[in-house]
Write a structure and sequence with these properties.
This protein has 196 residues and is of the alpha+beta class. 54% of the residues lie in helices and 24% in strands. The strands form two sheets. The chain has a five-stranded antiparallel sheet with strand order 2-1-5-4-3. A two-stranded antiparallel sheet has the order 6-7. Strand 6 and strand 7 form a beta hairpin. The longest helix is centred in the first third of the chain and has 39 residues, at 2-40. It starts with a helix and ends with a helix. The model has no long low-confidence stretch (mean pLDDT 91).
Length: 196
């Protein structure tokens, strides 16, 4: 019976050890999968401390900024932000600490000196026992280019509308006049208010 109890004890320890090893392997596999997912994410994902030192950054962060992993992690947020964005870092960190999360736009300087406009979603958290800031940043270069093209198109349209010799009057669905160009007002001898 004493030998049987000792064998049972050894078997129970072996079972616990095997369970711990299995759980550890599963946790390591889960970490590998999650790390892989972060690296294929189409957004820059970073973790930095209150001084702006990067503790983690995914592959997209390196690619967007043009730095190697080692170069990027040696930088601080203060070195990446353009002057106007850099002046707002402390206020944004205070806002994040106060409400826990925030969204805002910033501009970073890439390694090649070009500007990188980003829309950032940030929140506070803990990393290895210290308070940190987690951020997910989307490259909004294309959006900014589209917005600029739209502004230029609107300006072109407005200039054409206001300077053309032909009179133009716009009406809504009910037939009410909602806009007229200077030529229409001159030809008709009426102001927009008088036509409405």
């Amino acid at each position: 019976p004493a030998g049987l109890a000792q064998t049972a004890h050894v078997l129970e320890r072996a079972r616990r050890t095997w369970t711990l090893l299995r759980d550890h392997r599963q946790a390591e596999e889960q970490i590998r999968v999650l790390s892989g997912l972060l690296d294929v994410a189409p957004a820059s994902i970073t973790v930095h401390d209150a001084q702006g030192r990067f503790l983690y950054a995914n592959q997209q962060s390196f690619d967007l900024h043009g730095y190697t992993r080692e170069e990027f992690l040696a930088l601080t947020l203060h070195e990446l932000d353009v002057a106007a964005s850099e002046r707002l870092i402390e206020a944004r960190m205070r806002e994040l600490q106060k409400i826990g999360q925030a969204s805002f736009e910033v501009e970073h300087v890439r390694k090649d000196g070009t500007l990188l406009p980003l829309h950032v979603h940030g929140r506070t958290g803990q990393w290895r026992g210290q308070p940190v800031f987690f951020s997910v940043a989307l490259d909004i270069t294309t959006r900014r280019q589209v917005e600029q093209a739209l502004r230029q198109s609107e300006e072109k349209y407005r200039t054409l509308f206001e300077t053309m010799a032909q009179g133009v009057v716009y009406q809504n669905r009910t037939g009410a006049i909602i806009a007229s160009n200077p030529a229409a007002e001159r030809i008709l001898g009426l102001t927009l208010d008088q036509m409405s």
